[in-house]
Every structure is written in C-alpha cells, then in structure tokens.
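User: Sequence for Succinate-semialdehyde dehydrogenase, mitochondrial below. Tokens please.
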Amino acid sequence: LSPQERSAGLRRWYELMVENKEELARIITAENGKPLKEAQGEILYSASFLEWFAEEARRVYGDVIPASAKDRRILVLKQPVGVAAIITPWNFPSAMITRKVGAALAAGCTVVVKPAEDTPLSALALGELANQAGIPAGVYNVVPCSRQQAAAVGEVLCTDPLVAKISFTGSTATGKILLKHAAGTVKRVSMELGGHAPFIVFDSANVDRAVAGALASKYRNSGQTCVCTNRFLVQKGIHDQFVEKFAKAIERELHVGSGFDAKTTQGPLINEKAVEKVERHIHDAVSQGASVVTGGKRHSLGKNFFEPTLLSNVTTKMLCTQEETFGPLAPVIK
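Assistant: Structure tokens for Succinate-semialdehyde dehydrogenase, mitochondrial:
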C-alpha cells in the first residue's frame, strides 16, 4: 500500500474505535476488571495512537547527508523491516496494541499480535474494526493462546526467520527470555519492561498534595500499571503526618467493586497469581516488622478483589521494596 493508503486505513480505524468506544470499553472491563470509566479513557487513548500514526504514515522521509568526498552522495531511505511480532500485556489490552501496531502499519510492516492470555478479546475486537476499516487481510493478525501455550508461542515468534522485529511490553523476567530467543536470528527488539518507581516526599512537601499524588500514582488500575509507584520514601519529619493522611484518603476515596459499578475505583486483580503475590509481599513485610496501617487482606467480595493496603515501618530488606508488586500495596519507608 502507498503511504496515502496506509494513512487512510489507519484514520478510518481510528474513527471506528471512537464510534464504538462504549462497546470496546465494556470488553476491557469484562476481561480486565478495571473500572468502566478508566476503560473508556483507555479506548480514547488507544485511538489517539492510530490518529497520530495515520498522519505520520505520510511523513516517512529519508535524508541526504553531506559526504566527505565531492563525488559521493549519501542517501538514507527508510523502508519497512517486514513482519513485526507484537506481544502485549493485559493491563492495557487495547492501548498497548495500537501504540505498537499503529507505528508498524504506518511504516508499511505487517504484524502478528499475541495478546496476553488473560485479555484476548480486546485484540480480536480491534481486529474486527481493522477489517471494517479496510486494512487488508493478513496485515493485522491476532494469535490468542492459553497460559499453558504462551511460552511456546512467544518462542516461535522470536525465533521464526520470517519475523524481523519484536516489540514487547511486560515483565522483566519474560523480557529476558524473549531477548535470548531473538538473539539467535539477531532480530530488532524493543522492550518495555517492569518498573520499581519510588515516590519521594521531603519534609518541605505540601502533605495534602503529596497524598493526592500518591493516591493517583499508586492505585490506578488497582496498582497494576508499569508506572505505578512501588515504594514510598518519606523523610522522617513529615513521615507520620503523611502516613496518617494517606490512610484516611485510601479509606475515604477508594471503593472496591465490579468495574461496571459507577462507584468503583478499584476493580479486581487480574488473576489468582496476582493476588498471591500481593499476599506474599505483605506477609514477608509483616514478618520482618512492618505494620499494616489499612487493608492487608483479600476483600470481602472474594475471588481476586483485594483491599487497598498501606504498610509502615518498612525496610529495604523486604520483598515489597525489592520487587515490583503490581498490586494495591503501598509500602512506606521512613
């Protein structure tokens, strides 16, 4: 397809996402659990990538570089690399696809998307809209799989010689495995891996503003984003006041429940394994002297619902300050 045709297809895909934003958001909430309001926000965020790359598709410019010899001319041509394997996470099951696929299609590449095993429906829904937008068959491909088959499918995508590029967002541990697989055929690789973000509060801080920022930074999507704060470092002069106000804000403003309930701010965690990791981090911290200020256990709703939790008396020897929790746990270090 010409750049103009690729641009038109991406633009139409964007328009269809906006037209179907409510249905797409409900799919995210149903399979991921995040509150519907957050899911609606994700869909518009997702669509914006297609809108952006629809315009960028027209501007894949080359370059002319001055040569060191007068009888030489250096030209740079930008060409599609070929098939791109797109491996995406469950926490943003729509946005993490469009931000990668939009760029690939704008450049003229075809893609094979392997969505997270917990959230395949968003990827398939995007595929249906891609078809309606006139994206040719075989350009946007989705390969859902079970948790048991995920490792094998990932290995095939990273080792098959027909795949030229890997783009992965997910855990650091999985990223390391995919990098090893991709090394055999020296594929181009882009990795967006786990985080361990600190939230630092000095004595000079405005406590109320710090608490508001902490609440938003920690508990978005029930703590299941790669940019969520994972540990709080609070200077001793302001520590007690911060912890007290943070606990009150958690209890006052966060509401655990179904993502389809308008009052809900905290949906369920993605699966039982995620719940067990939060429990393991809390148990480890408490066993070493940490105190549970609020929360600390599974919610009365059961299954994958967990209480937003705040820990104090935390040290850097505890798991929750060494590993990414990826859940509604806020450990505070004085």
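The chain has two domains: 3-192, 197-333.
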